Amino acid sequence: MSPHPAEPIVVTGIGVVTPIGIGKTAFWDSLVAGRSGIGPIRSFDSAQYDVHIGAEVTAFDPSHYLPADAARHLSRSSQLAVAAARLAMIDAGLPRATASDDQVLGVAMGTTMGEAQVLETIDEDVVSGGLTAVSADLVTRYPCHSIATHVATDVEATGPVIMLPTACAAGNYAIGYAFDALRRGRATVMLAGGADAFSRISVAGFARLSATAPEMCQPFDRGRKGMVVGEGAAVLVLEPLSRARARGAPVYVEVLGYGLGCDAFHMTGSHPEGLGTVTAMQNAFRQAGIGPDDVDYLSAHGTGTPTNDRIETVAIKQVFGERAYQVPVSSIKSMIGHAMGAASAIEAAVCALTVSHGVIPPTINYLEPDPECDLDYVPNTARDCRVNVALNNSSAFGGNNAVLLVGRV
Fold first, then answer.
1. According to the model, what pLDDT value does residue 166 have?
2. Predicted TM-score (pTM) above 0.70
3. How many Cβ atoms are within 10 Å of 409's Cβ, its own excluded?
4. Res 123 pLDDT > 80
5. Strands 297-299 and 329-330: what pairing?
6. Pairing state between β 232-240 and 189-196
7. What mean pLDDT is predicted for residues 227-242?
8. Which residues are 83's β-sheet partners?
């Protein structure tokens, strides 16, 4: 079961559920076209809130991916995750395991909010009827590990199953975990990604931090006013290259390595010199055995907040030096908002598709350059460009930072 220690680990399937498209083709087409999935909040009445825009997956119907009875017993984050996992397995041509084969399938998922909508319902029940009004079934849906559990149950996983609640860097953490599990022979195939559902808690929370934009998300633009809360899910299929080739699976990219870096500077703020991001990038390069000169595209965390974009730019310059001005950098959060724990997983899918298609998605809503953010942010229009190595950058509350490197096979 164990692959050779040096054997490449590759991505063979991509499943995404986003505000601009469900499934890799619809998502990619919208991304390259620069379509925005940000609009007025529809899932609840925002009249009493300071924020009235969000990036919701309005076209999602769980009955398209789950039996009706199963869909009723899963909350939204789990529904999004299971749908993304099913799409990824179909894309990879991955059959379910049988007693006669050697497939050991594991699951690694990340999240920020877990099943936040469940907590909102519990709160409403407590307010209206007291603790006795809360059903036991509802309480058991809340813990965030239920997301990974539901995915594992649906795909009949027999390998390791883990939930990594490392906030907005969780998707990259999950992919890194899957990479290690395969390298160590703990599984033959891993599903890895992240999921988060839109919620009043996240909208109110980020608004209270004065981190949300009133009209649109403008990463790296001089007039940027903040992030836009979003939702979604992405799952990647990872497996050793020899196994992928033996079964004739599509191969998007090789996972070259990942790096983690926790600066623990502030609960919600980044280190002023981007220490955590710098450390994560350096660790990723060290593990992959390559350097900044090898990178052709950088998928930025790029939330659109004044502080994040400036500090991320500082970190990129510190690691890349003068070459920072030659590497295209873009933020898809300008189109899909911030999908929390799903964000870096969706962006990892983008890196894989960028390498495969030779097109770099744009940063839309870029109207005026910022002297403090002076890199090439691929403004407003996608760019044809051969990309051999892509870097996916992600940061999170608590100083959690995770960087993923993928490359052409």
1. 92
2. yes
3. 15
4. no
5. parallel
6. antiparallel
7. 98
8. none
CB within 8 A of 173, min separation 6: which ones?
A: 110, 164, 166, 260, 400, 402
Q: Which residues pair with 29 in a beta bridge?
A: none
| Nearest of 393, 223, 397, 382 to residue 304 by alpha carbon | 223
pLDDT mean over 356-377: 98
Contact in structure between 237 and 382 (CB atoms under 8 Å)? no
Task: Name the residues annotated as catalytic.
Answer: 168, 301, 338
| Closest among 53, 149, 48, 168 to 107, alpha carbons compared | 149
Regarding the domain delimited by 257-407, which CATH topology (the fold level of the hierarchy) does it fall under? Answer: Peroxisomal Thiolase; Chain A, domain 1 (3.40.47)
225 within 8 A of 309, measured Cβ to Cβ: no
In this structure, what token pair is assigned to residue 3? 């692959």
Instruction: Determine the Cα–Cα distance for residues 161 and 288; give it in Å rounded to an integer.
Output: 25
Q: Look up the CATH number of domain 9-246.
A: 3.40.47.10
For residue 22 the two structure tokens come to 């469900």
Question: In this model, does residue 328 exceed pLDDT 50?
Answer: yes
Q: Give me the residue spans of the domains in the chain.
A: 9-246, 257-407
Enumerate helices (H) and strands (E) in the chain, giving the number of each: 13, 15
CA distance 323 to 87: 37
pLDDT at 5 over 60: no
